[in-house]
Give the backbone structure.
Amino acid sequence: KEHIAEVEAFTAKTKEEVESFRIKYLGNKGLLKEFFAEFKNVANDQKKEFGQTINTLKSKAEEKVITLKESFEGKEEIQGVYGDLSRPGEPIPLGSRHPISLTKNKIIEIFSRIGFNVSEGPEIEDDWHNFTALNLPEYHPARDMQDTFFIQTNPDILLRTHTSSVQVRYMENNKPPIRTISPGRVYRNEAISARSHCFFHQVEGLYVDKGVSFADLKQTLQYFTTEMFGKSKIRLRPSYFPFTEPSAEVDVYWGLETETDYKMTKGTGWLEIMGCGMVDPNVLENCGIDSEEYSGFAFGMGIDRIALLLHQIPDIRMLSENDIRFLDQFKSSL
Ligand code: PHE
């Protein structure tokens, strides 16, 4: 009877413990063998009770062995496949954002704070949206400014050379007031080097409303450069773009504090970061906006160059090589 209690209470941590339990009770030299051998020596009036007791003990021991073995068999199978399930987990390695995305997101965030939304358009464009609507009619010499990859000619289908094409689409489909920025990939047939690639990324901005002036443009750029670079000294140099009049190039004063500053700014301290201007009335009219009633400004900048600048990346090609050792370095950036 004590043994029955022992059998009922028995638990095992390993298969081996179950096995020695089995040998102890049910083995060839086990306790039950002994008890059954003892049976013939038991007094007749006790035989019944003794017999019942050892039979109960036997079936309880057998049952115990079976249930314990089963519980271990399951686990062993799982452990074989997954290893020790009680071990602490290994963390899943975290990815990182691409420096282009980091820079793009920062630009979007800065402009969204002053009411600009984000618009996107196709990378494969027609002639109208990439050139003609932007005041670059056929045979206009300024088309040479942008070496174009043509997919098809007549009618011309091409890889967009700038995201100004998105602004045309936006003006065609939305009424002023318009405040939008268009980030995206653009393509130009240029020799690939450390400084330039045949594809890169731009953010262009457009603001059209009643009474928009050059002063608004300048103040917006001032705000942007301060937020983006922490540098508030800018200058606008007169320039030319077919779609803006007047047009300007924006330089940020980067300073001449370090050797890199000297290299980046060719010793002047000034760094060119974007083109801008007042939207040419012809462009507004091409997009169905009354140029007597409305005026606007536009600007455009290259994301890649800014990413190189902010992260001190020496070669633009590193941005598209997908080298994990390079990409992993942006883990700590948001
Ligand atoms: N679209 C011009 C470019 O790709 C940039 C630009 C945009 C200039 C808007 C002026 C106004 O170089």
About this structure: The two ends are 70 Å apart (CA to CA).
